[in-house]
Amino acid sequence: MHRPASATVDWKALREDFPILRERVHGRPLIYFDNAATTQKPRPMLEILRQYYEHTNANVHRGLHELSSRATEAYERARQRVADYLGAANAEEIVFTRGTTESINLVAQAWGGKFVRADDVILLTEMEHHSNLVPWQLLAERIGARLRFVPVKDDGTLELERLPALLTPEVKLFGFTHVSNSLGTINPVRELCEKAHAVGALTLVDGAQSAGHMPVDMQELGCDFYAFSGHKMCAPTGIGALYAHAEVLDSIPPWHGGGEMIVSVMLEKSAFKKPPHRFEAGTPKIAGAIGLAAAIDYLENIGRAAIFEHDAELTSYAVERMRELPGMRLFGPRGERGAIVGFVMNAAHPHDLTTFADQQGVALRGGHHCNQPLMRRFGVPGTTRASFYFYNTKEEIDRMIDILGDAVRFFS
Amino acid sequence: MNVELEELYQEVILDHSRRPRNFGELPNATVVVHGDNPACGDEIHLAVRFGDDGSLDDIKFTGHGCAISQASASMMTMKLKGKSRDETMSILRTFHDLVTGDDDMPPEARKLGDLQLMEGVRKFPQRVKCAMLPWRAVEQALQQTSGEATISTEVEDQVM
């Protein structure tokens, strides 16, 4: 008999690892449903950060002293940990960045600056976060390249029927999100990558909402670039990574210049390191990388498949209960989806709902979620969004439903 | 429900947000100001007809937004209709102090009438922009004196 992976995990006990979940907000117990914006941090990760600063802290790659060796070793071990976690071929395919946004900017500016020419096409989708739109707009403006977009259907999935017309040989790169941060839609990454490769385009996957939520394997997905943020998966803010296929990464010229990324520097000219260090100018976020590796250990210990099952069950429970509420419009696909539910209610504007819920301890997000074009596509100025993680519970969802019910009575 | 919520969303405010007054087009408007709050997608289109002496003979608005911005616009238009430019500026400043200040309510706030009820916004710094959007529009209308203008709660940098 199939026993779901999530059945073996004591989810309630995991909450104890997150001291912030005992916080009170406006006099009420915190219910944190803004996990798509950032997740909370577990004690084991925080403990490793503290240990690093108390026993290891030094700059990397250039000190000849003991602490510098320890810090360098821990930093490079963290890179290996990320590589293993993503199923990269080796650690050299992992560039540490500040997060998804910086990763995408690196690709748009350094790769795009070299390989994209006037009239070339970058194909994106209507559901992209601003971080996977604006860097490409800047590139297109600079180079004279064109942008195209795969439309989104009413059910929140991509209009894949349009792909043959959009994915033509002028397309140099197809960039799309793995999981939509507003709709929860999970895109068929492998299929999209295969289709893009068939016309000679590279692929970039925005993994901000997938890296900490489901098993993700680069060999299986088959993408050329995968960008993600640590802070959305239990790691500190300010650290993330870009995975790039070794062959592709080797072909990209330096982006930011400075220390750490050079072999030798003369006054007029310099020689640069090989990837990934070529792309890590200046002192990197060493503690952040080590914290990211610790977060990965923590998540792997639970199991990503288990986390996905747990969150999927929570999400379908939330969707089912939200349908009970009057004047409720839910966004996103009906079937399998990420742990994200966007909604609007006739009774109140998203900002009023969010303020109302916040005052009772429930952290939701109201607004456009850095998805202004997608909001326009659905004809709403914004939505309210509840997004879940493995430490959330059905009881918390019940509480949210009660509060949304109160909001209907209060505002209408 | 807590006290802050009840103070923010007083019954009068909710009533204005549900049934905004002076909502609609204004034929023969002297100035139309389009205001938007890109952070939340709220929009107001404020139309003012100035009299020969520069007073606000008529004022109406359309658009969409949260309860706070809608109520603020509705109550504002009621308050400002027929007021002179100087009176309008004075009310605008008083209202701004009301929703942003840390001090006790200024004595001149009494002349705001029902608008005083928006004092609850003080405790919600993220919502001040919602309350101020229609007022920013009217401020622009006074400067503009004729034609159309666009304002935003976020300042756009034009370097490109």
Describe the structure.
The complex is a heterodimer of chains A (412) and B (160). Chain A is an alpha/beta fold. Chain A folds into two domains: 5-41 and 304-411, Aspartate Aminotransferase, domain 1 (Alpha-Beta Complex), CATH 3.90.1150; 46-301, Type I PLP-dependent aspartate aminotransferase-like (Major domain) (Aspartate Aminotransferase, domain 2). Chain A contains 14 helices and 17 strands. Chain A has a seven-stranded mixed sheet, sandwiched between helices. In chain A, strands 13-14-17-16 form a four-stranded antiparallel sheet, covered by helices on one side. A two-stranded antiparallel sheet of chain A has the order 1-2. In chain A, strand 8 (202-206), helix 8 and strand 9 form a beta-alpha-beta unit. In chain A, helix 2 (43-55) runs antiparallel to helix 10 and helix 3 crosses helix 10. The model of chain A has no long low-confidence stretch (mean pLDDT 96). Chain B is an alpha+beta fold. Chain B has a single domain, classed as Alpha-Beta Complex (Sufe protein. Chain: A), CATH 3.90.1010.10. Helices cover 38% and strands 19% of the residues of chain B. A four-stranded mixed sheet of chain B has the order 3-2-1-4, with helices on one face. In chain B, helix 2 (11-18) crosses helix 3, helix 3 (67-80) packs parallel to helix 5 and helix 4 packs antiparallel against helix 5 (128-144). The longest helix of chain B has 17 residues, at 128-144. Chain B is globular. The N and C termini of chain B lie far apart (48 Å). The A-B interface holds A 26-27, 141, 348-352, 355-356, 359-360, 366-368, 372, 375, 380-382, 406, 410-412 and B 1-2, 4-5, 8-9, 14, 18, 38-43, 64-68, 124, 126-127, 130, 160.
